[in-house]
Amino acid sequence: MNAVRLSVCIPVYNFGSFIGETLESIIRQATDEIEIVVVDGASTDNTEDIIRDVQRTFPRLHYHRLDKKGGIDRDMARSVELAHGEYCWLFGGDDIMLPGAMDDIVNQLREEHDIYLCESILCKADMAPIKKHHLLDVDQARVFDLGDPAVRADYFKRARNTAAFFSFCSSLIFKKSRWDAVVMDDQFIGSHWDHVARFFRMIPKGLRVKYLPEPHLSKRGENDSFLDQGLVNRYRITIEGFDRLSRAFFAPGSLEDFHLRRAMKAEHNLKSLLDAKLICHNEGLHEDRAMLDRLAEIQYSYPSLSNRFLRFVYKFAPVFLLKIAKPAYLFLRPQQSKMP
Questions:
Q1: pLDDT digit string (tens) for 185-214?
Q2: Residue spans of alpha helices (H) in the chain
Q3: How far is CA 292 from CA 130, 205, 333, in A?
Q4: CB 3.0–4.6 Å: which of 18, 176, 189, 195 could bond 94 by disulfide?
Q5: How many domains are contained in the chain?
Q6: CB of 209 within 8 A of CB of 133?
Q7: What is the pTM of this model?
């Protein structure tokens, strides 16, 4: 049996509608040095049945069903723990690996970097493509050693969103030995970002990241499992989570702190917060306005004139005016460009 070079690690929960297509996209290009590890957080739908059927045709698919739902942080860590590969590719149970992606990644691994960060194509729920999801302002493949302060500064400045800071799991391929050398941190378990904290803890000893600007997967949209507790709570996961990450790993007011918060604002801009404010009014008890107000304070806490202005607009924009003027502030939302 060939040594496992790459383990595709997939934590899932109630993804029976998607996991079959995801697995097929991987298996059709998997060689003998590839394995798939699926950790199921006690799904209540037909996820297990779908995976068991696929297992019959692909024996290097290892399925582990947990007794109870443990949360994405623990399930993700468990999938990597069970992997045998030199490298692990975290992968969403509803995303699709693009043709040729596996061969390219395996070839890239010969360079032995710590992390490979690849692009994706954002899609609708039916996988119709919308646009490329650019993570960095970089046009070609490039290696960054985040342990070098000057290189790290350049990397952080180029980040377009939090996925540049490892938030989007399906873009991440990493050396398992580096992951195993860093233990889980109790303060981030349950935050959804323990894996990001783990990578940040590697930085002082050097962390070589190779950015790959070509898309390697299609990301299914309109299927955010973290929306199960409402839109405001979904915003909380990112805003509160990355606020905690920045406070834990970088000095207040540092370049890293500034750019992490800039990336948060790129994902949840003023337009989205004003929309959520209106939704809170319309939905009543179904959405938490007090939580949203707290998130806005965090979002615009960095001391700058622009943040003071944005915080003022959010705080004092009356709901009745938002209803009337909603078409007028569409310019606050970045326009989505269609795929060519």
A1: 889 999 999 999 999 999 999 999 999 999
A2: 19-27, 47-55, 72-81, 101-108, 149-158, 176-180, 194-202, 231-249, 255-267, 270-283, 289-299, 305-316, 319-325
A3: 28, 37, 18
A4: 18
A5: 2
A6: no
A7: 0.92
Q: Are 234 and 201 part of one and the same domain?
A: no
Please tell me whether residues 197 and 319 are part of one structural domain.
no
Residues 211 and 249 in one domain: no
Q: Give the separation between CA 205 and CA 311, rounded to whole angstroms.
A: 38
Residue 315 has pLDDT above 70, yes or no: yes
| Residue position matching structure tokens 């990578």 | 199
Reading the block at residue 90, the tokens are 């975290």
pLDDT of residue 5: 97
What does the pLDDT read at residue 317? Answer: 86
- Please answer whether residues 68 and 42 qualify as being in contact, where contact means their C-beta atoms are separated by less than 8 angstroms: yes
Rounded Cα distance, 89 and 331, in Å: 37
Mark whether 167 and 260 lie in a shared domain. Answer: no
Which of 60-64, 98-102, 196-200, 275-279 comes out lowest in average pLDDT?
Answer: 275-279
Residues 14 and 41 in one domain: yes
pLDDT at 325: 59
Whole-number Å distance between alpha carbons of 308 and 215: 37
CA dist 217 to 128, 163, 332, Å? 13, 14, 29
Identify whether 68 is part of a domain.
Answer: yes
Q: Give the Cα separation of 323 and 314 in Å (integer).
A: 14
Do the domain assignments include residue 298? yes
Residue 169 · residue 192 · CB < 8 Å: no
Domain span at residue 28 reads 6-223
Place 337 in a pLDDT band, splitting at 50, 70 and 90. very low
